[in-house]
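If I may wish for something, please sit down with the protein I am sending here and say whether tokens and residues agree:
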Amino acid sequence: MKKWVAGVALLAIGVWLVLREDATTSSTDLPPEIIDAEREDRLAPVEGEHAKPNEARSDEDETVREQVPPGAVASPDVTVVRGRTVDRDGRPVSGCWVNFHGWGGNRRRMDAHVSKHGAIDFVDPEGQTTGEDGRFEFSFVPPPPYQFSLDVGHDGCVTKTARWGELPRGETVDLGELVMRTGATVTGRVVDRHGVPQGDVRIYFKRDRRIDLSRGTVRDRDPRTARSAADGTFRVEGVAAAGTWNVRLRGRQKLSPDSLVIEEGQPSAFLEVVVVPQSEIESVSGIVVDQWGDPVSRVHVDYSTQGSGSRWIISTARDGTFRIERREGDAAGPFTISLSREGFERTTSEQKYEWGAKDIRLVLHADWGWKST
């Protein structure tokens, strides 16, 4: 009996020693492939769950995170337009105002987008002023049917401008260095051949050069149109770059000059424009109304006797009135008058008119089958 009890005790002690050795065995004594498998099981997230913010990341995760460029936009839909203003020597120009503007594209694109996605709520990014480094950057989500423009200016400098018919989402447009060049302020006076001041005359300037209007090309913006005051004086908004500018008028027939030349570095220019007196210009005038007798604005007015060469498009005013002035090369007449406008039937007058005719009344009929595109 005693021998049996002693044997059981010895057996129990042996089992305890074996269990103790197993319990104290370190995981570092296990084969490497088993250790790695256990670690992956512990770190792998449960399916359908996301890692918590305070969970440890591997060295590979840290490396990828460090490779993300500083200032990168997180959202894939955000488009970035950026650039840097510099002078001719490449030094940054501070204090430049930078404006970015978006507006609807053609009617077909807008209607297609709105019908599928609903109304567009787009707000222009806030304007910026360049700092000491001359840099600017706009971030926004562009609506697909929108077109966009960028204008960059500075007092005494020629305004830079660019335009895009559309901008894909998630695109970064780097315009590089925009060289801000000085230009000339343009003032002047409009008089007729007798020296009488002429007010309400629009003066247009067009550079004698080919302009690259391709997508996103940054170019010098032409000076804004000017309108003469009652005393004939005018001042052009903005400044004009060095070069040759063609001079065109609206509201009077110009006698001289044909162009304006601005030299490099020239700070200002004065221009006297001589026109034909209105009393010496042959014309016809009248009004366009619809079948109910209401005036119709923005009607394109054409006449059969006009000569060749470029000319302004003639359209009716808000009150439906129009005036056709005889230009060089126009035949003596008589002539017919044609009218066209979206939503109305194209019409050509049955009667022929002579120069000097006044108070002409033409009727334009609505086209009930017309649909906008």
About this structure: The chain is about 15% helix and 30% strand. The mean pLDDT is 80. Residues 1-45 form one domain. The chain has four domains: 1-45, 79-179, 185-278, 282-364.
